[in-house]
Design a protein that fits this description.
By secondary structure, the chain is of the alpha+beta class. 36% of the residues lie in helices and 18% in strands. The chain has 6 domains: 2-60, Helix Hairpins (Orthogonal Bundle); 84-322, DNA ligase/mRNA capping enzyme (D-amino Acid Aminotransferase, Chain A, domain 1, 2-Layer Sandwich); 327-432, OB fold (Dihydrolipoamide Acetyltransferase, E2P) (Beta Barrel); 440-510, DNA polymerase, domain 1; 515-585, Orthogonal Bundle (DNA polymerase, domain 1), CATH 1.10.150.20; 601-678, BRCT domain (Rossmann fold). Strands 12, 13, 14, 15, 16, 17 and 18 form a 7-stranded antiparallel beta sheet that branches. Strands 2-11-10-3-9 form a 5-stranded mixed beta sheet. It has a 4-stranded antiparallel beta sheet with strand order 5-4-7-8. The longest helix has 23 residues, at 2-24.
Amino acid sequence: MDGPSERIDELRALIGLHDERYHEADDPEIPDADYDALLGELKALEAEYPDLVTPNSPTQRVAPAGRATFAEVTHRVPMRSLDNAFDVDELQAWSERVLKRLATDRDGEESAEPPTVTWVCELKFDGLAVSIRYEDGLLVQAATRGDGQVGEDVTANVRTIADVPKRLADGAPPVVEVRGEVYLGLSAFEALNAAQEAAGEKTYVNPRNTAAGSLRQKDATVTATRDLSFWAYQLGEVVDGPEPASHLETLTWLAKLGLPVDGHVASFDDFNDVVAHVGAVEMARHDLDFEIDGVVVKVDDLATQESLGFTARAPRWAIAYKLPPEERTTRLLDIEVSIGPGGQATPFARLEPVFVGGSTVTAATLHNADQVVAKDVRPGDLVVVRKAGDVIPEVLRPVLSERPDDLEPWTFPTACPACGEPLVRPDGEAATFCNNYTCPRQVRGRIEHFASRGAMDIEGFGEQRVDLFVGEGLLDDVAGVFSLDYDRIADWDGFGEASVENLRRAVDTSRERPLGRLLFGLRIPHVGTTVADLLASSFRNLDRLESATVDELEAVEGLGPVIAASVHEWLRQPHNLDLLARLRIAGVNLEAPTTDPDDQVAQVLDGMSIVVTGTLTGYGREEARAFIVARGGRSPGSVSAKTTALVAGEGGGSKLTRAEELGVPVLDEASFERLLANGELPD
């Protein structure tokens, strides 16, 4: 028993340490997911060795009471925590336990008729739980959850939150205690950090900790500057009030009283629909202006809730499904430097594999030399990694309490790891560069970009093949793509006759790409797809663009002096002029599409903003956007209140959800074709 006993003691000590950092200092060292893992391990050990369970174990209480920096408030109705489900199997298992308990009577006999249950799903907000008490319609007290029995009085601070009514609507009962979440919206958090930075003050780590710290300010006028928000989602004590039959009815009544209730609430009779809803929320979590970390699933009927009752710490009729964590801790194995197509040297972290943000991460960006110094992360550290959806993984900070004593600070290398030439950091810039144009990593990067889908779209030019072609001396710049030695390639392992012919055909086809695609593919500094198309449509061919003055470039609507100077300089560098000459010889198209009036498409979408999402049957997504732009419309990448319509193919995802929320018309493929033809939206 010594081994399990010692590990249980160790886990309780660790959880106690992190509870103190989280609840008292509002400065947690580890992400919630890692805390949940520690608590889960402790629960499993205590289940295996029940004789080792103690009343003060973290598994037997809601949360630590914390240090009472404000007056204590005893909750008349306890504020309980929720049990968690970390995957769909655990969520399904919880629903089966609920149904089994409802189907079994006190004698242990199962009912012949299976129980019917309506399930309610709400977003799990990442903020601070509070209880707000109203008497005769007036706000008289607000308290944090604390340990579930006793919280802290934060009345003065909660009064500063604009979302929280100081007086309820007419008809409120003598006593209403409402539970909910205080949070800091993402836009408010960004504005706060921008103001802090402008004032030369430290910025805040994340919205949740900032909200918690703001709510515990001794001076309520400070809290008032933080733009906190509030969602109501539960009742505590109510005296002489109505008796709603369901949770949904409760939420409706709270809204009628004037309390803010989040609109992302859904109910389902089939638990399979609950599972599907959880998946939809996960896809759309980054469309919200506040952070969530899960979905709360409840039994809707209040009488059924009462019959299910509670465990020692949580209700049996509700569970929190935790979305894949966006922050986790893992070991930093090494810091390496990558060289980009433009020569920028970027430090990145090699990590022990960790599942975060929905995928397994083994590397994460560290941005630049200054960021490595500011974060003070060192190879060997336990570090916090964040990955939000499709965002590139990032190392946030070290866990200093876990740092070995002998770790030395990391220093930025002075030589390029790809070619050995000196690395240079220009005065006043954060970035460091390798200025060797023939650096093999830069060559590879330029060719990969040139062949990418948004540029020349050459199928068969993935990263591995480009590495092979450059490594074998077959390619040394993008012009060489059009003079490949196919006979030599045919002799290599893995290249049959068909694959070589497909590669030849893909290269030949790419010669006809329009001028805008070529300009984007050349990686001219500051020239993205939009600027490339502007340059192509304004100057019509490469000869005119090459001869353009800086003033002529700057006169193009949408181009400023920085872009104009960058394009002008790039077109006068000797190695770029040589490259363009070789592209001419290779027969690459150097003209923009014709604008002959007889060939022009009617501008039926002039002034419209049409977003495309999902997979269409008759169009590629980029092709659909090109059709929109050719008819005078715009096709941005996201849905907003200014969007005219959304064209949704298979798998529309979060954009479709956002369009439905904003009331933006959603078009199927047939309606899209009619729109392209006459510019008319369906009734």
